[in-house]
Amino acid sequence: MNIIGCVLILKDDFNNILVLKKKVKRGQKEIWSLLNSPLKGKKDCEKTLSKAANKSLKTVLFELKEFKEFSINEEEAVKVYTGVLRERYVLEKSYDDANWINKNNLEKYEFGELDNRILNEYFK
């Protein structure tokens, strides 16, 4: 299966997960998501996600570990990793908001189909 992207589940010391909301144009639906990045060229997911966290959150990742692969269709999949944030983050301007959530308040947020599958599997 061809890996086309990487997704990062960012957690804190209390097993809460950081979810992000991108800025949208008027009339578009606001959807929360996990930090993700397309895989370009021959780069590996670890480097790609470290750069994405540095760019989007202006912070450093700790304890990056592979979690699971999730298929998008018959030929393509994304690799999911977990990582820990130990310092404050600063959102880049393309993001509107970020929240720490846990299993109990997962239903209050609207996610895309893939992020929903990933979070449900993670909180099992």
TrEMBL record:
On the tree of life, the source organism's domain of life is Bacteria
Supply the name of the protein.
NUDIX hydrolase
Lineage per the UniProt record: Bacteria, Bacillati, Bacillota, Clostridia, Eubacteriales
